[in-house]
């Protein structure tokens, strides 16, 4: 029997109480002397990265091509990745808890997959524009792990998967509205840049998007089933609801954690109102077990959005899967007339991505990587909780398997209803950068200092090394 990737579900009520205390506690960050010391470490040890970052700023907006690379005081120029470690251009080694944003459950640059990709490149090259058998093997494998995915369309990213899901849902149902849970990130396409990161923010981050593009997008508060029912009922009078989008463990990979019964109850509401249930499993697919979050919860979504996980961290990867009937609107052809949705991508399902994905998923299943990564997440979260208690800090940590949260500033849990929201947002947002800098100077790479992904490569020795480094930072708060 396959070992579980999630050993326990966090106590949501207890976590919410602690998060409420955190956002009502003054910011607790490293003191100015400590911050100056961390900055001095960067000055002394990362000259090569600093030069690369300065050059990047001349040609790239804000000096980075994607947000994962953001880092105070400047981005790190990483030249080598292996397992649980990264090395920068200056030769510094870091413990990698970013893991490319989540897809490398085997650890970075896993040799058995790399060898298969190298062989493919030697024989075929990365792309031909034609059918390749790896497309079929990958689609079948995903179906075998996730029975709800009877048909799978490979695309180039999670954002494209969400775009396709919106279009397919509307084409299939003939309905108009899309409802998402506030705080969730479903990519950057026009129709879902709404209620990002902090629930209730609506179109706050929708610069450059015409209001009309968001007219049919709505949000409900995390976990609020009554509000979801009200939205679904109200929409019946104005075009109906095509789809309800959820991150099944909660918005922002469980930053706003949901109760374990939430997804099943959303499934019931979608059935009652004839809306499609869409699981965004860009992060959770295969990381929470080979059956993803849907396998863990035992809930069958109508559509599943995939991201970088389907290629095990190799580029140009994402997609959409679902039942045969709903996915039939994506049938190929030179025209898309009638009840068919136009979705494409010249480099989608390229031989490189599909070969990498097939062998990565096969290796994850063979090695039990999700369970090993989940065990590492348990050890890391328990160790962080002990450090927080030892230093009497208001911080909050918990994990869902190999997805570990460390909330130090509470910025994503601020409420727009709080009269102090405007004055708290800046300092608490700045603190994320300060904590990320402190962790990096101690050799720890995280996602904005607040989220950590573990992999099969994060052995007990690696996690214990990391906890010693986290302890040095927390001792200077």
Descriptive report:
The chain folds into two domains: 12-109 and 368-474, Aspartate Aminotransferase, domain 1 (Alpha-Beta Complex), CATH 3.90.1150; 133-349, Type I PLP-dependent aspartate aminotransferase-like (Major domain) (Aspartate Aminotransferase, domain 2). Helix content is 40%, strand content 13%. It is built from 15 helices and 14 strands. The chain has helices at residues 12-23, 32-45, 47-59, 111-123, 133-145, 158-173, 225-235, 251-254, 262-273, 292-297, 324-327, 351-367, 369-390, 421-441, 460-474, and strands at residues 78-82, 85-88, 93-96, 151-155, 177-181, 217-220, 241-246, 276-280, 303-306, 318-322, 396-400, 403-407, 444-445, 451-453. It has a seven-stranded mixed sheet, sandwiched between helices. A four-stranded mixed sheet has the order 1-2-3-13. Helix 4 runs antiparallel to helix 12 (351-367) and helix 5 runs parallel beside helix 12 (351-367). The chain starts with 11 loop residues before the first helix and ends with a helix. The mean pLDDT is 95.
Helical content stands at: 40-55%
Terminal Cα separation, in Å? 44 Å
Which superfamily, in CATH terms, is the homologous superfamily of the largest domain?
Type I PLP-dependent aspartate aminotransferase-like (Major domain)
> What's the SSE pattern?
HHHEEEHHEHEEHEHHEHEEHHHEEHEEH
Structural class: alpha/beta
Report the CATH topology name of the largest domain.
Answer: Aspartate Aminotransferase, domain 2
Count of all domains: 2
Low-confidence stretches: none
What value does the Rg take, in angstroms? 22 Å
- What's the main sheet like? 7 strands, mixed
Number of helices: 15
**CATH class annotation of the largest domain:** Alpha Beta
Question: Spatial order of the strands in the main sheet?
Answer: 4-10-9-8-7-5-6
Oligomeric state, counting identical vs distinct chains: single chain
Strand content: 5-15%
- The total strand number stands at 14
What is the average per-residue confidence, as pLDDT, rounded to a whole number?
95
CATH architecture of the largest domain: 3-Layer(aba) Sandwich
């Amino acid at each position: 029997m396959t070992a579980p990737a999630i050993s326990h579900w966090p106590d949501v009520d207890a976590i919410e109480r602690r998060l409420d205390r955190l956002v009502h506690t003054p910011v607790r960050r490293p003191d100015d002397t400590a911050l100056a010391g961390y900055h001095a470490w960067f000055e002394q040890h990362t000259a090569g990265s600093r030069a690369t970052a300065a050059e990047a700023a001349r040609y790239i907006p804000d000096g980075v091509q994607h947000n994962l690379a953001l880092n105070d005081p400047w981005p790190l120029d990483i030249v080598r990745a292996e397992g649980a470690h990264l090395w920068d251009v200056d030769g510094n080694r870091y413990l990698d808890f970013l893991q490319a944003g989540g897809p490398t459950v085997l650890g970075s640059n896993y040799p058995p997959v790399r060898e298969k990709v190298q062989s493919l490149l030697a024989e075929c090259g990365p792309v031909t524009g034609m059918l390749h058998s790896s497309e079929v093997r990958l689609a079948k494998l995903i179906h075998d792990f996730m029975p709800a995915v009877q048909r799978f369309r490979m695309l180039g990213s999670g954002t494209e998967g969400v775009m396709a899901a919106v279009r397919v849902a509307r084409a299939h149902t003939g309905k108009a509205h899309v409802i998402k849970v506030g705080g969730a990130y479903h990519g950057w396409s026009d129709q879902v840049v709404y209620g990002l990161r902090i629930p209730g923010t609506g179109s706050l981050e929708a610069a450059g998007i015409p209001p009309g593009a968001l007219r049919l997008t709505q949000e409900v508060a995390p976990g609020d089933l009554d509000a979801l029912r009200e939205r679904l009922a109200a929409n019946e009078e104005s075009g109906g609801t095509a789809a309800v989008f959820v991150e099944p463990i909660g918005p922002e990979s469980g930053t706003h954690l949901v109760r374990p019964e939430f997804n099943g109850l959303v499934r019931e509401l979608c059935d009652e109102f004839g809306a499609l249930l869409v699981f965004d499993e860009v992060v959770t697919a295969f990381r929470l077990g080979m059956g993803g979050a849907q396998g863990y919860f035992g809930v069958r979504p109508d559509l599943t959005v995939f991201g970088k996980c389907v290629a095990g961290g190799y580029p140009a990867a994402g997609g959409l899967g679902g039942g045969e009937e709903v996915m039939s609107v994506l049938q190929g052809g030179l025209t898309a007339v009638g009840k068919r949705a136009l979705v494409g991508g010249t480099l989608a399902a390229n031989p490189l991505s599909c070969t990498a994905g097939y062998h990565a998923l096969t290796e994850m299943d063979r090695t039990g990587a999700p369970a090993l990564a989940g065990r590492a997440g348990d050890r890391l979260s328990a160790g962080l909780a002990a450090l927080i208690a030892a230093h009497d800090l208001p911080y909050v940590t918990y994990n869902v398997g190999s997805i570990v949260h460390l909330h130090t500033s509470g910025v994503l849990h601020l409420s727009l209803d709080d009269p102090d929201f405007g004055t708290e947002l800046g300092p608490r947002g700045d603190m994320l950068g300060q904590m990320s800098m402190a962790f990096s100077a101690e050799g720890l790479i995280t996602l904005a200092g607040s989220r950590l992904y573990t992999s099969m490569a994060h052995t007990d020795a690696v996690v214990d090394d990391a906890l010693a480094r986290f302890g040095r930072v927390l001792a200077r708060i």
